[in-house]
């Protein structure tokens, strides 16, 4: 008993030491990167290397704060947010409907899969000219691009989720003579929560990229437009500021969706013999190659 | 109909042909404006014209060359760094989350930075292809080496292999399928990013052609160049998928 607690204390101590070492590595990496950046910025100020291209960290921080004080930033943020949300909802809705149909019908799935894989692996940005031709260069084309970006990861994950539904659940639904609508709402969707949310999480991240890239090409508003405008005006520090803000927004959105998926997993996880829900994590590896 | 049920490929092809026919009729009858969606036959015929005007095959090799350069750079840096993260477990754990986050981040938006640094040159495209290509290679190299079965390591130790021999004879061969998965993902993202940046900055290979055709208001040419890019992507996706299947026979 004493030996077990000594061993446990040692392993806890070793874990604590590892955690501290990992924290030190991360902290030193951040400090080192900042020092390298400041070094390059200094060389730029001395006209030795990349003059004006790499501003000092403090200048970038001031630019970030300044962005948040500008009304135009919130206007552009609102435009991008609207494009993203509408595109994501429309694309996901169509994808979930088609994914359920593909999952339920093997012929449909095997017929469509090669074409969906072909377009899914293609850089979606090259379809922008088609979207601009159809919808114009306003926010509609950006919403359409967002919908296109969201569609593919969601349809693949939904179709896979449908295929992986345990046949027992389907037989139970049929034995109760459930209608198609009831089968979808009471059997299919609850059984597919995890893969669908995984697809939605991936789709949300890719929709952000798709909308911003479309704004970079042709737009008169939005964060992507703002980034392109700063580049064209050679306002380097504000350009860095917008990039950092966009990366932060994308990271927060990803964390939010991951937490949502973790919550869904905990809700759906089977109860263990001790009455506790089994822990599950949404954090995944690289998985599907989903392009923007 | 039961015969068709056994041939999803034929059903898919018939569906595609059907859609093309419907579009052909709709555009011919004026239901859809031909400057928005050209007739499919016009788009296919335009491929030859696009090749004559814009040297489609030559530009394909330009895109291919930059993809290869970015991938080579990603391999030269990614595999050794992945090995470093494997050998130094604390560094591996420290950077694991950051690498995953970087992979999910919209790195395509960094292109203005490289435009400012390198100008509108191939270096910008190679840099933009390198970033999304290197990350999965690093991650999968580490994962592949971590996943080497303990039994194989014990066999190596029982033969008193040196560290170098252990790496070249046991660890690397066992990790190759996983590493290749990283290379496949990296190459796809590299190609996607390079084509995307070519389109955005009107420079380079295939992506530039799509942009050029659009600016000329040449709808058949635009669609023809898009079809060409789709074929290239499918070819890469299929080719690397076959190689990966060959590396993972089971």
Summary, kept brief:
Chain A is mostly helical and 292 residues long. Chain A is built from eleven helices and no strands. Mean pLDDT of chain A is 84; it is low at 272-289.
Structural overview:
The complex is a heterodimer of chains A (292) and B (250). Chain A is mainly α and 292 residues long. Helix content of chain A is 78%, strand content 0%. The longest helix of chain A is centred in the N-terminal third of the chain and has 44 residues, at 2-45. Chain A is globular. Chain B is an all-alpha fold and 250 residues long. Chain B has 11 helices and no strands.
| H and E order of chain A | HHHHHHHHHHH
Give the beta-strand count of chain B: 0
- Radius of gyration of chain A (Å): 24 Å
Number of helices of chain A: 11
Content-based structural category of chain B? mainly alpha
The biggest sheet of chain A, with number of strands, parallel, antiparallel or mixed sense and barrel status, is:
none
Low-confidence stretches of chain B: none
Report the structural category of chain A. mainly alpha
Helical proportion of chain A, percent range: over 70%
Give the helix level of chain B as a range of percent: over 70%
Features:
heterodimer, A: 292 residues, mainly alpha, B: 250 residues
Set out the fold topology.
The complex is a heterodimer of chains A (292) and B (250).
Chain A: H1 2-45, H2 57-69, H3 71-104, H4 106-120, H5 128-135, H6 139-163, H7 167-175, H8 180-191, H9 193-217, H10 223-232, H11 236-268
Chain B: H1 2-5, H2 8-28, H3 40-54, H4 56-87, H5 89-104, H6 111-118, H7 122-146, H8 150-158, H9 163-201, H10 206-215, H11 219-247
Helix pairs in contact in B: 3-4, 3-11, 4-5, 4-7, 4-9, 5-7, 6-7, 7-9, 8-9, 9-10, 9-11, 10-11
